[in-house]
Amino acid sequence: MASITAAEKQLILAFWCKVDVEALGGDTLTCMFIVFPWIRRLFSNLDDPLQPSLSLGTSPLRELLCNKLHVDPINFRLQGEVLITLLAADFGKELTPAYHHAFHKLVGVVAHALACRSH
């Protein structure tokens, strides 16, 4: 598993401060439901799947995804790829190859960390 360098972390943090996180989170989940419709069933037991108040990487999130919703680990990577695609759509040329590469590595690290707790 690749790790994120200090330079990549700085790129991610510098870019992330430009992002409307609430809007991007909702858009990412909505896009996931459209592009990968089978994912909607994972959220059938939540009152409002488009408004989860979850923090990425926290223990409660891992518990929810892995133990309550039984999310297939591949979906973590898919969601990360959708997030990067939406960043590219929103920011265009501002999302340079260096930023894209850093976010791609971050998605891989986060997906791996979440998948480690799966089933």
Automatic annotation (TrEMBL):
Q: Which UniProt keywords apply?
A: Heme, Iron, Metal-binding, Oxygen transport, Transport
Establish whether keyword Transit peptide is in the entry. Answer: no
Globin domain span: 3-119
What InterPro entries does the database record attribute to this sequence?
Answer: Globin, Globin-like_sf, Globin/Proto, Hemoglobin_oxygen_transport
State the PROSITE patterns in the record: GLOBIN
Write down any Gene Ontology CC term.
Answer: haptoglobin-hemoglobin complex
Record Pfam families: Globin
Q: One GO molecular function term?
A: metal ion binding
Biological process terms from the Gene Ontology for this record are: hydrogen peroxide catabolic process
Checking SUPFAM superfamilies in the record gives: Globin-like
Domain of life according to the entry: Eukaryota
Q: Which family does it belong to?
A: Belongs to the globin family.
**What's the protein called, per UniProt?**
Globin domain-containing protein
Biological source species: Podarcis muralis (Wall lizard)
